[in-house]
Amino acid sequence: MRRARSAGRPTLDEVAARAGVGRGTVSRVVNGSPQVSEAARAAVIRAIEELGYVPNRAARALVTQRTDSVALVVSESEERVFAEPFFAGIIRGINSVLLETPMQLWLAMAQSKRERERVEHHLTRQHVDGVLLMSLHGADRLPLLLAERGLPVVICGQPGGDLNLDSGMISCVDADNGGGAKAAVAHLLAQGRKRIAAIAGPQDMGVGVLRLQGYRDAMAEANVRVDESLIAYGDFSEASGAGAMRTLLDRHPDLDAVFCASDLMAVGAMRTLREYGRRIPADVAVVGFEDSVLARQTDPPLTTVHQPVEAMGREMARLLVARIRGEPAGPPLTVLDTHLVVRASG
Fold it and tell me: Cβ atoms within 10 A of the Cβ of 205, count?
């Protein structure tokens, strides 16, 4: 039978007494610490529900010096963040981990100079406990700036530039971009394709560099000379894939396969191939990278490299939470496996 709730705001001590545990155990449960037995956690949660206890965030922040907020900063436009499946998958993964903690997630787009200045001004220990970063371009100084402010940082993807990951404040989570791209191109070579083009991603991003290197590695392993004019560049968007495919077809009407460094660019490339009267895969085989929901909806369905997007988001959040709590977070770089998913496009 549920007991009547105490008059006034229930305290941490009242929760402890009701649960039959120490005050410290209640505090650990409220703060999401894993160092609590399941029996004790269940007793505390039951007591919280019975008493109607609501943690006082302001008071807890004074004691713990934490805000219980983490930021996800994406250096892309709002249109891309909300339209492209990759970002949604990462956010789902992050949120699934943070739901098990008291931490709240706030999202910021920081593509323009004004957006960047506003975000940098806000990212301090007075506002957030840690920061997740996505889509860094070039030798971005933001990770180092945040680390200098004493904020733990986890980056999605290996950033460009000379970033020191041994500081203890910065971690990276990535997929095996080079290995996945190499497997995709090796698959095309094994099918007997002779004129294999590549639509590469931006070369000021680690992911763009690594996927293009995978293309080069597969060709070198097969003793096939890389023709630089068979490489075009996009920004991972559908429109850029369509434009790059036009460039490649104008240069090499006889190309018989194309590796695209993202599924969206592959979708754009397939649209252009149809405009040019090319049959997929009879005339030109197409392989993408990501294995997004789009890959199953194209006509024909897209052969692509699967990267574990939600798992990447979960690992990013896990590492950040561990660093915030001062727990061991493992090596500074975590690389998750990729694998080829063969469908009808190539």
Answer: 22
Q: Hunting for tokens 């009242």 — which residue is that?
A: 14
d(CA 341, CA 62): 51
DSSP H helical segments within 295-335, as ranges? 309-324
Mean pLDDT by 10 residues, the chain (346 residues): 53 88 84 79 86 63 66 90 92 94 90 84 90 90 89 89 68 97 98 97 94 98 97 97 98 98 98 98 98 95 98 97 86 95 97
Please name each of the domains of the chain with its CATH number.
Answer: 12-55 (1.10.260.40), 69-174+309-335 (3.40.50.2300), 177-307 (3.40.50.2300)
The tokens 């787009």 sit on which residue? 109
Tokens encoding 181: 């791209």
User: What is the C-alpha separation between 180 and 195, in angstroms, rounded?
Assistant: 20
Cis peptide before 281 (omega within 30 of 0): yes
Rounded CA separation 287/185 (Å):
8
Which single residue is written with the structure tokens 């805000």? 67
